[in-house]
Design a protein that fits this description.
Elements lengths: L6 H37 E7 L2 E6 L2 H9 L1 H12 L7 E6 L5
Parallel strand pairs: 2-3
Antiparallel strand pairs: 1-2
Helix pairs in contact: 1-3
Length: 100
């Protein structure tokens, strides 16, 4: 944007970008839930996506182990469910907050 860009245009663009980011986050949550099923979705929550790596919080060490052993299958299933968006190449699990 140049120095002469009206504030209204800047705000409109920022709001548009925020809306796109929120939609992307919602899509990731839905796709993850579809990938791991209802039981898995209750025990996990995607924390963030960066450089094609999805970091997922899990409720306890049992789930951490279970999901780690299924990592390759989960990546394939997640990418299949994600459709035409950027695909992930890595999954990382960590024990963390899963509440909304």
């Amino acid at each position: 944007m140049s120095e002469g860009t009206p504030l209204k245009s800047i705000i409109k663009e920022l709001l548009s970008n925020l809306g796109e980011k929120e939609k992307e986050e919602t899509d990731i949550l839905k796709t993850w839930g579809k990938t791991v099923g209802k039981k898995g979705a209750k025990q996990t929550k995607p924390a963030f996506l960066k450089s094609k790596k999805l970091v997922v919080n899990v409720s306890n060490s049992s789930w951490l182990y279970k999901l780690t052993t299924e990592k390759t299958k989960l990546i394939q299933e997640f990418n299949k469910n994600l459709k035409n968006r950027n695909k992930i190449k890595q999954l990382q699990f960590r024990i963390g907050d899963i509440k909304e």
